[in-house]
Amino acid sequence: MREPGITREEIAFDVALETGFSNRYSRDLVDQVFKCASQGIADDGFLRIRGVGLWKAIHKKRRLARNPKTGKDAWITARRVVTFKAGKAFKRKIKQED
After folding, report:
1. Which residues of the chain fall below pLDDT 50?
2. Can you give the C-alpha Rg of the chain in angstroms?
């Protein structure tokens, strides 16, 4: 069974339908957009798309946690993660579809 959501291939197919570009060109275009977005977040620490939202790379400190199965303490390493905050227009669009 397929997971809900949309895949990169489906986005490329939609781009091809809307623009008249070939499927291959649309797939390459979508791949390039995601590559630039990922690189922007990695290099600059954030990506803002008006009407959609803000992706932000944040640093999480090393912390002590507890394994829920065993109850033992375990250290979680410091790491960099990406967060997303939806923009107002995006939130309105999601609420309309409920």
Report:
1. none
2. 19
3-class SS of residue 56: strand
Beta bridge partners of 87: none
pLDDT computed for residue 4 by the predictor: 81
In terms of pTM, does the model score above 0.70? yes
33 phi/psi in degrees, rounded to 5: -60, -45
Q: Residue 4 gets which letter from DSSP?
A: S
Q: Contact, 41 vs 47, CB < 8 A?
A: yes
Residues with Cβ < 8 Å from 54, sequence gap 6 or more?
46, 47, 48, 84, 85, 87
How far apart CA 13 and CA 21 sit, in angstroms, is 9
Detail the DSSP E strand segments found in the chain. Answer: 46-49, 53-60, 63-66, 73-76, 79-86
